[in-house]
Amino acid sequence: MSTVPNGQTKASLSGRRATPLHGLTVLVTGAGRGIGRATALACADAGARVIAVSRTRSDLESLAAEAAEASEILTSWVADVTSSEFVRAIGAMEQLDVLVNNAGTNKLQLLADVDDATLDMLLSLNVRSAFQVSRAAAVRMMAIGRGGSIVHVSSQMGHVGAAKRTVYCMTKHAIEGLTKAMAIELAPNGIRVNAVAPTIVETSMTAPFLEDPAYRTFAMETIPLKQVASADDVAEAIIYLASPAARLVTGTSLRVDGGATAQ
C-alpha cells in the first residue's frame, strides 16, 4: 500500500476528510489573536493536537476556553517567539508535524518617516524570528524523522509593493524567498514548506485601518472580489497546506487575496 508523509496511507486518508490533521501535532505562533487564533481553532477542529503560542496569557486563556467549549484539543504556551528560550523549547518537542509560522506585525509609515526602531522591530519579528523558529522546527522534524509541513504566514505584500509599507513589503518578500529555499533544501527529508499570502484581513490589528472610510475604499478598489478576508479564510488555506491533501505542494505561496495580485 502506497504511503504519504507523516506515516499515513492513501487508504487511511479516505475516512479522515473531516479531520485532515488527525494525529498531528501543530505549533501555531501568534495564536492569541487574528489569523493565529483562527488557525489554532481550525487545526484543533481538524483533529490536530495544537500548541498555541502567544506572549499574552489572557489571550491564550480565552482561546483555551473557546476551544474547550468545542471539545477541541489545544495546549497553550506563553512565550516570546523572538527569545532563545522559545527556540530551545521547539528543540525539545517530542512530536512536531506542522509549524504555522504566523507571528508578525506591521506599522504604516512613509519611507521618509521610517525610524530605526520601527525598522529593527519589523525585521526582528517578521524576518529574524521567522527564520529562527522555522529553522528550529525543521531541525526537530528531521531528528524525529516523520517529515512535516511548515507554513509561513506571508502577505500579498510579499508579491507586490505599496506606499507606506516599504519595511513590511521587504520583510514579506524575504519570507517568500525563505519559503522557496527551505522547500528545496528540506524536500529530501520529507518536509514541505509553503507560504500563505492573504490580502487585507479583518483582525484586531487591522481594525483601526478599516474603520477609516478612505482606507476601506482603497481596500475594496484593490480586491477584485470586493471582499476583505476573514481570519477563517486564511486558516482554511493553512489547513490545506498542512494536510496530506497537499502532499506534493511545496515551495509555493497560496494567495488568499481575492485576485488582488492578479491585476
UniProtKB/TrEMBL annotation:
Keywords in alphabetical order: NADP, Oxidoreductase
PROSITE patterns: ADH_SHORT
GO molecular function: oxidoreductase activity
Pfam families xrefs: adh_short_C2
EC number assigned by the record: 1.-.-.-
CDD domains the record matches: SDR_c
InterPro entries for the chain: L-xylulose/Carbonyl_redctase, NAD(P)-bd_dom_sf, Sc_DH/Rdtase_CS, SDR_fam
Highest taxon, organism lineage: Bacteria
Similarity comment: family membership: Belongs to the short-chain dehydrogenases/reductases (SDR) family.
Subunit structure: Homotetramer.
Record-given protein name: SDR family oxidoreductase
Organism: Bradyrhizobium septentrionale
